[in-house]
């Protein structure tokens, strides 16, 4: 894989060549400034985009089903003013355990309930179990609310799932290990 240092040197060389060509040509100043800004923006964009390739944990949404390989929990520290975080090393899967893609690191904000669930899942991994996770959704009952302007009761539509479900966090379950057939002699 190409290292960040090599890419930085390559962009510096391209920037120097662009600067030389811009000085040597008789283009307008506006065009020259546009080219300098464009190359500089590409340089910064590439650098920031490479963080995803370097293995930094992403903060995007977790897959619906996944296998948990390991996790690290950093608890909040008021003295250091650290908010805390949960890092998961997971692999997307289908229910039942079939893996779909390569493992990836995810970053979650620290929440006590989530941290306890992850800690329990880590204990199960230490015991040699395969742990599968999924995003849980909690069903809410249709409630009657009051419209403040008219004092008319409004019933939420039970068919509208956006009003009826909310995130309830992560759930972890263990999968049965597949026993390998005995080796032949």
Note the main attributes of this structure:
2 domains; two-stranded antiparallel sheet; elongated; alpha+beta; five-stranded antiparallel β-sheet
Report on the architecture of this protein.
- With 185 residues, the protein is α+β, with helices and mostly antiparallel strands.
- It folds into two domains: 4-53; 65-175, no CATH class.
- It is built from four helices and seven strands, in the order ααβββαβββαβ.
- It has helices spanning 4-24, 29-53, 112-126, 161-164, and strands at 65-74, 85-92, 104-109, 130-139, 144-147, 152-155, 165-175.
- The strands form two sheets. The protein has a five-stranded antiparallel β-sheet with strand order 3-2-1-4-7. Strands 5-6 form a two-stranded antiparallel ribbon.
- β5 and β6 (152-155) form a beta hairpin.
- α1 packs antiparallel against α2.
- The longest helix has 25 residues, at 29-53.
- The protein is elongated and about 75 Å long.
- Mean pLDDT is 78; it is low at 138-147 and 154-167.
In round numbers, the mean pLDDT is: 78
In what order do the strands lie side by side in the largest sheet?
3-2-1-4-7
Order of helices and strands: HHEEEHEEEHE
Helicity range of the residues?
A: 25-40%
The span between the termini is 42 Å
Radius of gyration: 26 Å
Gross geometry? elongated
What's the number of domains? 2
The number of distinct helices, counting runs of at least 4 residues, comes to 4
What portion of residues belong to β-strands?
A: 25-35%
């Amino acid at each position: 894989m190409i290292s960040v240092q090599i890419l930085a040197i390559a962009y510096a060389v391209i920037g120097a060549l662009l600067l030389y060509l811009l000085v040597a040509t008789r283009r307008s100043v506006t065009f020259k400034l546009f080219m300098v800004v464009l190359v500089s923006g590409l340089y910064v964009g590439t650098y920031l985009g490479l963080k995803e390739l370097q293995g930094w944990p992403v903060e995007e949404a977790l897959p619906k089903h996944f296998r948990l390989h390991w996790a690290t929990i950093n608890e909040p520290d008021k003295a250091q003013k650290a908010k805390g975080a949960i890092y998961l090393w997971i692999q997307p899967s289908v229910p039942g355990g079939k893996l779909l893609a390569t493992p990836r690191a995810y970053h979650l904000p620290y929440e006590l309930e989530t941290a306890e669930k992850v800690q329990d899942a880590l204990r199960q991994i230490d015991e040699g179990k395969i742990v599968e996770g999924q995003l849980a959704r909690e069903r809410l009952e249709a409630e009657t609310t009051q419209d403040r302007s008219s004092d008319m009761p409004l019933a939420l539509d039970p068919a509208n799932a956006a009003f009826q479900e909310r995130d309830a966090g992560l759930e972890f379950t263990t999968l049965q290990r597949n026993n390998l057939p005995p080796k032949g002699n």
